[in-house]
Amino acid sequence: MSSSVMRRSGRVKLASVGLVVVGSLALSACNGDDDAGKPVGGATPTSSAPSAQPSSQPSSQPSDQPSAPAGGGGTGGGGAQAKGGQTFKIGEAAQFPFTYGTTTKGEISLTVDAIEKGSAADLAPLKLGDKVSGKVPYYIRYTVKNVGTTDLAYASVSHMKGHLGDGSEAQDLMVIGSFDKCPSDSLPKGFTNGKTQKGCAIALAPSAATKVASAEYWGDPFTMGQGLFWK
Description:
Layout: E1 16-18, E2 87-88, E3 93-100, E4 104-117, E5 136-146, E6 160-164, E7 171-176, E8 196-205, E9 212-217, E10 228-230
Parallel strand pairs: 2-10
Antiparallel strand pairs: 1-7, 3-4, 4-5, 5-8, 6-9, 7-8, 9-10
């Protein structure tokens, strides 16, 4: 991941990690006491559940929604658009109107390609220490395709998070800078109709005995707990 903007608010090229979480206290890790609060070399895992919706509430992830056909539909593809709360199989595409910032609007097709279990050792270079002790990273790998008529250059398709097997929310870990295990960049220049790009989001399972079983996209026009689900 290079020369990118933070997935949810803009990303600059820094060798640091951090969490952007709704309704939670974001802390800052460091390499030493003199670096406390600095963005270089640190990260902070934390729950992303908003206070109005506890992360332990399994009902936030509906299981009775029918799966959409692969390839999805939307205004750009002539089919039905994905609806909030809808569940897809891993590898199926969901199409919906996409907004980034105040001026970038279009239509994308989003596919969660895989939810891969990593190793606790993967997090060692991030120097998080006890903050991730016992936790296991899972990599939510997805593909973005522009199926609309506008250029989505430099937009970020973020707001992707993991859910545990019981439906509760996994912790998020957002990396600023380069992390080879889970690279994710802003959409490139000239991201016009038909262009695709891979992305990745990190979710933390609380222990080796627990797995991240599903993923949710909750960006506009959706909301957390009522987004699009893949499992």
